[in-house]
């Protein structure tokens, strides 16, 4: 067999292996969904009879909102949240006329997994397609519908927003009550308990990791706490960091200090685990230009990272998010910033400057229009 034939045979074998792995993981997801015996739809899903964050606060009729959407270029959106989901409602002009679209976004660890996978990808355009396919397969077969798609929607940053969407035609619908009566029956709402990894109905996190890897995505997890991590975050270049808003580069694991108040970094190799170490008190210190804390870059557990020169040794600056208040936060990849000492530079300087100027990594929260 020639080299070309050998390569072809190798590719065929690899394709069969990927297909078999995907089949096993899909079977595991479906077995899990059967085992938990989901409660009835009415008891676990959102009802939309009284929508929170909707067009009614600014537009008396459906026609008024459509007119505003036309002026806005063909779309008009609202974000809304409840206990089991993060959504976007949109009026969108399609080839068959105006449609009312509801998009559901991943939440919890699944949301982190999506964003960390994209940040870690060598080809981020390709990663968007891989993420869409992985999220489509993440939904157990019993809950899939042909009119529910996985889509990429506009973001205020380069970081894509990807979620599941379903829509209905606005033809003949004049009042918002007409829209709500149809919206509450969208099967999209059945997915909410599944795609929020903090829900008791969500599949185990390791299934999500396995599924993403089967689709060719780069997924690394912290050996200490299990969080999805990347070393390609713009605010923390070269440092393992999660996309989770409060903790970022900090691991919360008994392997790395137990109940100690000290902060320890994420690790991706088990042989790196050790109790957290302390400063000796003789390290050179500076003040952070944003939060005024005393910081040092000489901590043994945080080489070349500016951390508080206290017993907490936190690398997280107390500076507020991206210059946007809590009422504006949405699609947040990480509102946690590193310390930047006075009269010294940080690898994240440029990313922070962009963040403070443009509201980087934020989308408007409920009751705020995109016009």
Topology, please?
Elements: H1 3-36, H2 41-44, H3 62-71, E1 75-82, E2 85-94, E3 97-105, H4 108-120, H5 124-138, E4 149-153, E5 161-169, H6 176-183, H7 192-195, H8 205-214, E6 220-221, E7 228-229, E8 250-251, E9 264-265, E10 286-287, E11 294-296, E12 307-308, H9 349-358
Antiparallel strand pairs: 1-2, 2-3, 3-5, 4-5, 6-7, 8-9, 10-11, 11-12
Provide keyphrases for this structure.
371 residues; 29% helix; disordered C terminus
In words, what does this structure look like?
With 371 residues, this protein is of the alpha+beta class. 29% of the residues lie in helices and 15% in strands. The strands form four sheets. Strands 1-2-3-5-4 form a five-stranded antiparallel β-sheet. The chain has a three-stranded antiparallel β-sheet with strand order 10-11-12, with no helix packed on it. It has a two-stranded antiparallel sheet with strand order 6-7. Helix 4 runs parallel beside helix 8. The longest helix has 34 residues, at 3-36.
């Amino acid at each position: 067999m020639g080299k070309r034939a050998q390569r072809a045979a190798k590719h065929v074998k690899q394709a069969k292996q990927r297909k078999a792995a995907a089949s096993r993981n899909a079977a595991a997801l479906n077995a899990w969904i059967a085992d938990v015996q989901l409660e009835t739809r009415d008891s676990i899903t959102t009802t939309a009879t009284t929508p929170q964050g909707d067009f009614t606060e600014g537009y008396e009729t459906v026609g008024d909102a459509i007119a505003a959407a036309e002026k806005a270029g063909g779309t008009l959106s609202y974000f809304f949240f409840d206990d089991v989901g993060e959504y976007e409602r949109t009026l969108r002009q399609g080839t068959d006329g105006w449609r009312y679209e509801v998009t559901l976004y991943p939440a919890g660890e699944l949301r982190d997994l999506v964003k960390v996978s994209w940040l870690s990808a060598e080809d981020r355009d390709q990663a968007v397609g891989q993420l869409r396919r992985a999220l489509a397969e993440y939904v157990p077969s019993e809950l899939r519908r042909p009119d529910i798609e996985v889509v990429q929607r506009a973001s205020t940053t380069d970081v894509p927003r990807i979620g599941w969407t379903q829509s209905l035609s606005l033809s003949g619908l004049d009042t918002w009550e007409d829209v709500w009566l149809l919206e509450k029956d969208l099967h999209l709402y059945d997915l909410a308990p599944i795609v929020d990894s903090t829900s008791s109905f969500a599949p185990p996190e390791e299934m999500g990791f396995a599924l993403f890897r089967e689709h060719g995505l780069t997924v690394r997890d912290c050996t200490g706490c299990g969080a999805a991590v990347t070393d390609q975050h713009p605010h923390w270049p070269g440092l393992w960091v999660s996309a989770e808003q409060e903790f970022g580069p900090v691991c919360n694991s008994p392997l790395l200090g137990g109940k100690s108040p000290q902060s320890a970094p994420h690790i991706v190799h088990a042989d790196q685990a050790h109790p957290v170490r302390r400063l000796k008190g003789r390290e050179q210190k500076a003040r952070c230009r944003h939060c005024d804390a005393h910081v040092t870059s000489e901590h043994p557990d945080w080489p070349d990272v500016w951390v508080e020169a206290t017993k907490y040794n936190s690398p997280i600056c107390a500076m507020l998010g991206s210059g946007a208040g809590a009422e504006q936060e949405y699609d947040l990849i990480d509102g946690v910033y590193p310390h930047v000492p006075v009269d010294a530079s940080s690898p994240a300087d440029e990313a922070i400057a962009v963040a403070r100027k443009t509201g980087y990594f934020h989308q408007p929260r409920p009751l705020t229009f995109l016009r």
